[in-house]
Model the fold of this input.
Amino acid sequence: MPQRQTLLKVLLSKRHQETHRAFCLEYDKVARSIDRRLIGSSPSREAFGRWMKGHLKTKPQADHCRVLERMFPGRTVAELLAPYDPGGNGSGVAPTPSTPREAATNRREVFHLGATTMALGLTDSLWRGPDLLEQALDASSVSEARVLHLEAEVDRLGRTVPPPAVLPEALIHLASVRELLKNRHPVEAQRRLTRVGAKLAIVVGEIMFCANHFPLARRWYATATRAPDEAGDRHLADLALASTALIPTYAGDPRAALALVLPRLEHAVAATPAIAWMWGFAALAHASLGDRSAFERAINRSRYTLDRCAEDMLQPGVLSFQPERQMFYEARGRSDLGDVPGTADAMTRALALYKAEDSNDPALVRLAYASVLAKAGEIEEACHFATAAVHATQSAPSITVVVRAHEFDALLSETGSATTEWREALSTVRAPDPTALPSSS
Done:
């Protein structure tokens, strides 16, 4: 049976670029927009022929993949080089991983995502039906009302996470944005859609992070960092970078957190919530390393930057950074440094600002105070505080609460009624299963 043509060949034929010369001209044009050093790196005539026929055993080199995926937004290299099936929804061929570990990880994620998609079933079709129709209507030029709706939705979701119940909505809106971005729109509409996509990626990344899916969270945050660069939005890129710092912070790697945020902070001038957040992460890392003076400098810069931010930039949720969270970071840092009065003061100020529905951060603030009490030898009071913190968590605790609860427990050596009560409470705090995607129920 003759080899079927690839999706790449079909798409290039529609653009009248199926010859090697025409393809290379377009390739260099796109490569220039990514990195001028990629100009002239187009595939040889033989390699191009294999791409068109699908005669491949491995993925093309990384630079070729970058340019191909930029040439065809929304398409992966695996889809482009797979046999074209006009009756199917995709290529049906998964990308070839570079290592066995990556292969195992990708297979796991695909299986879990596939199971989630099947579980949505009819509900997913009902949710996406109107959205797909609107995408078709907006194929040539997206309407202002459509963009405004997506902007309002992502801001609402940003205030709602991390509960996994919002994950289906976020993914549906993300699919809508991805489809819209396959077509070229007026420059400003294109930028606004790109910003919406970046914010949605941050929302999904936050859900994955809280659910103990650090590799997936890192991938979503990386995408969220790239999209604002396309739209020329420095603040949103900073917000994605700050979100990424959650991972090394709660993985117990303060030096990695510093390596992530300090290069950006060295050149930061504007006062934005994202910059204040990065200073907060720097403060936490310095405190974890026992550097009190560096902690004081960083936490003061965080507070000062936040005070200078425009009021309309200080919004609740994961798309901003709030004074109460800055105070929580101060409490955590002072706890790590053994400052009992300072931790108590920061905790009091933070808890006065948190609302009742903010279930994770207040628990983290109380655990910070419990930890500094345990270091000071006040074991009974520390256990009472920690137990109350865990019991006050209204929803399933995120990985942040689990990490800090076990760090507190590691400080205890005594046995007694308070310790027993705490260990009973700790037994109910389970880390989210990293092999299962968060439930939306």
Remarks:
- DSSP finds 21 helices and no strands in the chain.
- The longest helix spans residues 100-137.
- Residues 78 and 95 are 5 Å apart (CA to CA).
